[in-house]
Design goal:
This protein has 242 residues and is an alpha/beta fold. It has one domain (4-35, 64-235): Aromatic compound dioxygenase (Protocatechuate 3,4-Dioxygenase, subunit A), CATH 2.60.130.10. Helix content is 10%, strand content 22%. The chain contains four helices and ten strands, in the order H-H-E-E-E-E-E-E-H-E-E-E-E-H. The longest helix is centred in the N-terminal third of the chain and has 11 residues, at 19-29. The model is unreliable at 1-18, 25-37 and 230-242 (pLDDT under 50). Bound molecules: fe (ii) ion. Fe (ii) ion binds next to strand 5.
């Protein structure tokens, strides 16, 4: 699989109205596939990782959870389409409603949405570079993005941050299971415990039912802190909403 140009069609689960609504629809449609709570004793907390230097210094105007298409552009980002989804869980295994999951990553050329990024001259203007999703009752989040690529000194990874009620609850990075570069990555190597590595390393599974090809990555994020109380929909930190 190579170009998002031929693989940018929405997954068949999608209902073809607005992009925002269809992405939310898929997130809701997957609710029934996950057990709720209960398995707390089996859950490992998601390991923290450094934020790194490339959290966007200027957030894009489009901050939705579809990073493949910026605003209403007809040209999608270049890269291997990936459907990244999962749940945000508290330390006891309960789903967390009202958490904002943010992701950011470099484009297919290794350039970040940051003025200090390397390779900035080759940045793919069709890649959003950053997106966020507000979880509902089952704690689910959903993104459409590209499969991360390596850049000098780093294994492929997606940065992630979870905020709630104005507080940062977790900052970490997600890696591709089976990627040989993980073993030599200086930041991944800081995770000495196998469980910690497992908590930020997932399969990127080819989706054979998607024309042109795509990958699915499932990643549950288990917070090590109890989310703050309050009405998340009135207090959650959402800046620069589109
Ligand atoms: Fe990075």
């Amino acid at each position: 699989m190579n170009s998002a140009t031929r693989s940018s069609r929405p997954h068949p689960f999608f209902i073809p109205f607005s992009r925002r609504r269809l992405l939310q629809s898929l997130a809701l449609a997957t609710t029934g596939f996950w057990a709720h709570g209960a398995l707390a004793e089996m859950l490992a907390l998601t390991a923290k990782q450094t934020e790194g230097p490339f959290y966007p210094d200027h957030l894009p105007l489009d901050t939705d959870n579809d990073l493949i298409v910026v605003n209403d552009s007809l040209t999608p980002a270049t890269g291997d389409i990936t459907y990244l989804s999962g749940r945000v869980l508290g330390p006891n295994g309960d789903p967390v409603r009202g958490a904002t999951v943010e992701i950011w990553q470099c484009d297919n050329n290794g350039a970040y949405l940051h003025t200090g990024s390397g390779n900035a001259g080759r940045r793919d203007a069709n890649f959003q570079g950053y997106g966020r999703f507000l979880t509902a009752g089952a704690g689910e989040y959903f993104f459409r993005t590209i499969k991360p690529v390596p850049y000098p000194g780093r294994a492929p990874h997606i940065h992630a941050k979870v905020r709630m009620n104005g507080r940062e609850l977790l900052t970490t990075q997600l890696y591709i299971k089976g990627c040989a570069q993980n073993e030599t990555d200086g930041i991944y190597s800081r995770l000495h415990d196998a469980k910690a590595r497992e908590s930020v390393t997932v399969n990127f599974t080819p989706m054979r039912d998607v024309k042109g090809g795509a990958f699915a990555a499932k990643w549950d994020i288990v917070l090590g802190v109890t989310p703050p109380d309050g009405d998340p929909h009135t207090r959650v930190d959402v800046r620069n909403s589109r």
